[in-house]
Design a protein that fits this description.
Layout: E1 5-8, H1 12-18, E2 22-27, H2 33-44, E3 48-56, E4 60-65, E5 68-73, E6 77-84, E7 88-91, E8 96-99
Antiparallel strand pairs: 1-2, 2-6, 3-6, 4-5, 7-8
Length: 101
């Protein structure tokens, strides 16, 4: 269950949607919404209202080296936007969940 969640994403957009009770996590690309919901509930002990997922394809990257043009590709990523029930929060820094005081 713990392998479903890779890490929380702390970006400008994730901080903006965090004020409305949503949190963004990078998850395993093969996981589904039910597995993500169960993993969040187990890890942070909060009630999940909704889970939305986004899959981003890997980009093709090129760079010039002494050996010539090197091409590669970044990995596929999957993000989960998790909405909690009203009055509940997750402290991303310490990794603890619960209700607001």
């Amino acid at each position: 269950m713990i392998t479903v969640l890779k890490r929380p994403l702390i970006t400008e957009k994730a901080t903006k949607v965090g004020h409305s009770g949503q949190y963004v996590f990078e998850v395993d690309p093969n996981s589904n919404k039910l597995q993500i919901k169960a993993a969040i509930k187990q890890m942070f002990d909060v009630d999940v209202k909704d889970v939305r997922t986004v899959r981003t394809k890997g980009k093709v990257k090129q760079r010039y080296t002494r050996r010539g043009l090197m091409t590669g590709k970044t990995n596929l990523r999957k993000k989960a936007y998790v909405t909690l029930m009203p009055g509940q929060t997750i402290d991303i820094v310490s990794g603890e969940g619960g209700t607001e005081d």
